[in-house]
Specification:
Blueprint: H1 5-8, H2 11-26, H3 33-37, H4 42-60
Helix pairs in contact: 2-4
Length: about 70
Amino acid sequence: MPVNHDALYSLENFDFLARTFARMHNEGRTVNINAVTGNMDEKHRQWFCKRYALYCRRDARVTPVELEAEH
């Protein structure tokens, strides 16, 4: 079965990954964005990095909900 490159480079897939890595970044985890985008073509890499930066900024403004400790 041949690989469908259009499916691999679906913007929906890239958007999901950008949101996921931004969440990880905002949780304090180390994200090597160069390693993540290393095999992307330039068009997709630029789009991905813009979305990643957008989600990092947007998610950083969200105040985490503190849960009450159960007794």
